[in-house]
Amino acid sequence: MKTHDSVAILMFNSSQQSLVLVKQFRPAVYVGEVERRFPGSLAAVDQDRPQELQVALPGSAGVTYELCAGLVDQPGLSLEEVACSEAWEECGYRLAPSDLRRVATYKSGVGLTGSSQTMFYAEVTDGQRGGPGGGLAEEGELIEVVHLPLDGARAFADDPDVPKTLGVIFGISWFFSCVAPGLGPR
Predict the structure, then answer these.
(1) Quick check: helix, strand or coil at residue 123?
(2) What is the gyration radius of the CA atoms in the chain, in angstroms?
(3) pLDDT of the chain along its 186 residues, tens only?
(4) Could you tell me if 48 and 56 are in contact, meaning their C-beta atoms sit under 8 angstroms apart?
């Protein structure tokens, strides 16, 4: 199986005192929710077709909150250049590689791909937002940009009913440990 490493970017919008996340539909999450809520419903009744669901599950069951992120699949680009490209495509923020601070590099997808992900941090302002974001339609992306107010970010990270990636939880924890103490009173 061919895999790609990836980058993720935790952005803090200082104009809005918010963390910038993305929200998007993930088919694998949706299928997992169908199976969790309706055990056995996706198992083949006969070898040709799955059982029909008696109750429809809304598409929102497959939506997750994530950090802005992307695959490192363009030869010749640095991790920082890929991160800047993703910040523009997904969130509409113009960043330069020098705007990024490397947070950590870690293994992701260890049960399937074993790829590495590098997380960056960037402080942004409303003035750096030059586009709507939303991802690239030609790549099948349909992304909503979410500005999470700092005053609710810890509760958001701790809420088990909010579907989010581990990167979001780690990013929020890292932010409050390493960045927020230097911000002063809000």
Answers:
(1) strand
(2) 18
(3) 678 899 999 999 999 999 999 999 888 898 888 888 888 777 655 556 655 656 678 888 889 999 999 999 989 999 999 999 999 999 999 999 999 999 999 988 777 778 899 999 999 999 999 887 877 667 766 789 999 999 999 999 999 999 999 999 999 999 999 999 988 765
(4) no
Q: What is the pTM of this model?
A: 0.87
What backbone torsions phi and psi does residue 131 show, to the nearest 5 degrees?
-150, 170
Residues in the chain: 186
Q: Return the bridge partners of 65, or none.
A: 23, 164
Nearest one of 10, 17, 15, 8 to 152, comparing CA atoms: 17
Q: What whole-number distance in Å separates Cα of residue 86 and Cα of residue 80? A: 10
Which residue type occupies 52?
E
For residue 78, give both structure tokens. 């640095």
CA-closest candidate to residue 166, choices 117, 94, 133? 117
Give percent helix, percent strand, percent coil of the chain, each to the nearest 5.
Answer: 35, 30, 40
Closest by Cα among 101, 139, 147, 105 to 120 = 101
Q: Helix (H, G, I), strand (E, B), or coil: what is residue 22?
A: strand
Give the helix/strand (H/E) hosting 83. helix 79-86
